[in-house]
Design a protein that fits this description.
The complex is a heterodimer of chains A (165) and B (250). Chain A is an alpha/beta fold. Chain A folds into two domains: 89 residues, GMP Synthetase, Chain A, domain 3 (2-Layer Sandwich); 59 residues, no CATH class. In chain A, 26% of the residues lie in helices and 28% in strands. In chain A, the strands form three sheets. Chain A has a four-stranded mixed β-sheet. A four-stranded mixed β-sheet of chain A has the order 7-10-9-8. Chain A has a two-stranded antiparallel ribbon with strand order 2-3. The longest helix of chain A is centred in the middle third of the chain and has 15 residues. Chain A starts with 6 loop residues before the first strand and ends with a strand. Chain B is mostly helical and 250 residues long. Chain B has one domain: Up-down Bundle (Ferritin), CATH 1.20.1260. Chain B is built from ten helices and no strands. In chain B, α2 packs antiparallel against α6, α5 runs antiparallel to α6 and α5 packs across α7. The model of chain B has no long low-confidence stretch (mean pLDDT 95). Classes of the chains: A alpha/beta (165), B mainly alpha (250).
């Protein structure tokens, strides 16, 4: 179990698993690792979430969606955004990584490999379409703050890579 | 209210706010789709960071002001950003030169701010530094590409660096709030970042086959609210919605 999920009341897990990132609907917020704690205190669910990227507009939506999901399960809730410790891509669960890849977003590599790919043009990322590693960085910044843009030189398909953070 | 802490936070945040606005101006105007997206992503990161700072500043102020008030409703003289970040996007080389000269500073600054005794500031720094290291990679990569590119790209980036050089020294000036916060081990002593900053910048300029400007004349004033003529125009864009439709919310 990773660091973000250490203080989550097991009763709440199925509810929180219904909430996903609006930009990446296949990825539940639990698998993304943004929920740091969720506890029922005096009948109110207190949830702490940590932002992925500072400017990520999805965070506001995620907060609202958590509130709605809990409301549907008859819980009142309070959502707090906390910054420390900072979110890292290491907190994405294996299930989450698989979901990303199937959705067409290559999951983050280890930090060192990530640097090699983004800075030195190493070809280490598997194309999400044909699995080839003959992939080229197009831009360090992609369609959202968390992604870089790649292209596969074998099947020629462009795809996103979830940057290591 | 802790006046010095409040002003200190605004001093940090305003740099990101104004630079974020400048980069945001390129939305739909970048020289290529990829660079356009990169510039706006950097803008978004900076704006997100600003929100963390302003949300904290609002808590310190403890009155009814909101983060939007701080961002949108101050007068020009109340903005504490350095002159460098308000300089206009004259061309892509200027945009990159400005970003590079700021990113190198920003990265070193955040590395130190992580050690702040103020836990909120250190947490924000800890979060931001990951994003800013991507910014610095992007801008330094482009300085090298332009410098070591065609004769035209080289000329343009050299001109941008030469012109913007005059704004670099101000990064290391201390305001009253800066000094007070350094004494409390909350703030970063920017004077100590200067040597490494110029070394890193010079190394990279050399790598980019560019000349290091030798001008000894430096502009200052932004941190005290004395801005160049460009900030007013920027603020009219930035503040337009709140000034036209007061208290508007999305």
């Amino acid at each position: 179990m990773n660091k973000t999920q250490q203080h989550i009341d097991p009763i709440l897990i199925p509810i929180l698993e219904q909430v996903s990132d609006p930009e990446i609907p296949v990825l539940s917020i639990m698998d993304m690792g943004v929920v740091r704690s969720a506890l029922i205190i005096n009948g109110v669910v207190e949830v702490e979430i940590t932002p992925t990227y500072s400017g990520c507009p999805a965070m506001d939506v995620i907060g609202d969606d958590i509130e709605k999901a809990l409301k549907n399960a008859n819980y009142d809730s309070r959502i707090d955004l906390i910054l420390h410790p900072a979110w890292t891509t290491d907190w994405i669960t294996p299930i989450g990584r698989k979901a990303l890849e199937e959705y067409g977003i290559a999951p983050p590599l280890e930090a060192d490999a990530d640097k090699e790919v983004l800075l030195n043009g190493k070809r280490l990322i598997n194309c999400t379409n044909c699995r080839s590693q003959n992939t080229r960085l197009v831009s360090q910044f992609g369609s959202t703050a968390c992604k870089a843009l790649f292209k596969c030189e074998d099947c020629q398909e462009p795809f996103d890579y979830f940057k290591c953070l | 209210m802790k006046e010095n802490l409040y002003n200190y936070i605004l001093g940090i945040a305003d740099n990101s706010l104004i630079l974020g606005q400048r980069m945001g101006e390129l939305c739909g105007h970048g020289p290529s789709l990829e660079t356009d997206i990169a510039c706006t992503n950097i803008s978004l990161d900076l704006l997100g960071q600003v929100r963390s700072y302003f949300q904290y500043a609002v808590k310190i102020a403890g009155d009814d002001r909101t983060e939007d008030d701080i961002a949108m409703l101050r007068k020009e003289r109340d903005y504490k950003n350095v002159l460098l970040v308000e300089q206009p996007n004259l061309n892509f080389a200027y945009t990159i030169g400005r970003q590079f000269l700021f990113d190198v500073y920003h990265l070193a600054f955040l590395a130190e701010l992580q050690k702040s005794k103020d836990l909120t500031l250190s947490a924000i720094a800890n979060k931001c530094i990951k994003e800013v290291s991507y910014h610095e990679r992007f801008s330094s990569d482009w300085v090298k590409r332009l410098g070591d590119g065609t004769s035209e790209s080289k000329e343009k980036i050299q001109e941008a660096i030469n012109d913007l050089w005059t704004y670099t020294d101000e990064l290391f000036h201390q305001t009253k709030a800066d000094k007070a916060m350094v004494l409390e081990s909350v703030g970063v002593d920017v004077t100590k970042l200067k040597e490494d900053y110029y070394k890193r910048v010079k190394d990279l300029l050399e790598e980019a086959t560019l000349k290091i400007p030798d001008s000894k004349w430096f502009q200052k004033g932004g941190k005290e609210g004395i801005h160049s003529e460009h900030l007013g125009y920027l603020l009219t864009d930035l503040q337009y919605m709140q000034r036209t439709y007061p208290n508007m919310e999305w």
